[in-house]
Amino acid sequence: MHERPLSPHLSVYRMYRYTLLTSFANRMAGVAISVGFVLLAYWLIALAGGAHAYAQASALLATAAMKIVLALVLMATVYHLLAGIRHLVWDTGHGLERAQSQRSAWLIVGLSIVLVLLLGWWILGSRSHP
Amino acid sequence: MKAVQHWWLQRLTSVALVPLTVWFVVSVLSLPSLDRPTVITWMSGTWTALLLIAFVVVGAWHSRLGIQVIIEDYVHGAGNKALALALSAFVHIAVAAVGAFAVLRIALGGAA
């Protein structure tokens, strides 16, 4: 741990609100998806465990509280995916100018909202026509 | 882990996770239902099983790298930090192992 280089202290940079928000949101989204992976492993092992185990897991995952958690994980996934692509583009050296990064911040937020609405429409629509 | 290695693994896993995540979300939402027989039939396909194992393992790996950075930033004290990192490693390895084992068991027909 000691040999890892440290970033310059944050106060060195002039931070803009959108930069702080998109970066912090990306971290929090990542944490939410980590929780999602624990739930995915639980769902998979219950599925492998047999009909009874799967029925129990399905009942738990269908509670109102868990539906909210799953919806948040899905939203986090959409945002983290888009923000991650933005980071990968930055790694190629593109889009780093302030005006460009401000534009891409709005772009990923806007696209996230559109994609979440589309996914929500898909999920709710497919459930009403089983 | 060296910082450069960490940086590379974070990027490599990100690049792999872009298509894997899109595939996973679209595939699960496309299933006609989440009844056990429907999901098991889907998961028994060779490509589905392989992609799903890749998604769980690479996802857990990427998650471990990300959580590591958060622990290094926010958890103070060498002891606490080491403990948090060890706990994170344990949970992530468990998620990857449990997920991969479950998919293999289903795909190989051991979960009838």
How would you characterize the overall build of this protein?
The complex is a heterodimer of chains A (130) and B (112). Chain A is mainly α and 130 residues long. Chain A has a single domain (16-128), classed as Fumarate reductase/succinate dehydrogenase, transmembrane subunit (3 helical TM bundles of succinate and fumarate reductases, Up-down Bundle), CATH 1.20.1300.10. Chain A contains four helices and no strands. In chain A, helix 3 (64-91) packs antiparallel against helix 4 (98-128). By secondary structure, chain B is an all-alpha fold. Chain B has four helices and no strands. Chain B has helices spanning 3-30, 36-43, 46-74, 78-107. In chain B, helix 1 packs across helix 3. The chains are: A mainly alpha (130), B mainly alpha (112). At the A-B interface, helix 1, helix 2, helix 3 and helix 4 of A face helix 1, helix 2, helix 3 and helix 4 of B.
Topology, pairings included?
The complex is a heterodimer of chains A (130) and B (112).
Chain A: H1 17-49, H2 51-61, H3 64-91, H4 98-128
Chain B: H1 3-30, H2 36-43, H3 46-74, H4 78-107
Helix pairs in contact in B: 1-3, 3-4
Distance between the termini of chain B: 42 Å
What fold name goes in the CATH topology slot of chain A?
3 helical TM bundles of succinate and fumarate reductases
Helix coverage percent of residues of chain A? over 70%
The CATH superfamily of chain B is known as Fumarate reductase/succinate dehydrogenase, transmembrane subunit
Specify the biggest β-sheet of chain A: none
The largest chain-to-chain contact, stated as pair and per-chain residue counts, equals: A-B, 36 and 41 residues
Mean pLDDT of chain A: 90
Judged by helices, strands and strand pairing, the structural class of chain A is: mainly alpha
Q: In the CATH hierarchy, what is the architecture of chain A at level 2?
A: Up-down Bundle
Sheet/helix structural class of chain B: mainly alpha
Q: Provide the β-strand percentage band of chain B.
A: under 5%
Radius of gyration of chain B: 17 Å
Question: Cα-atom Rg of chain A, whole angstroms?
Answer: 19 Å
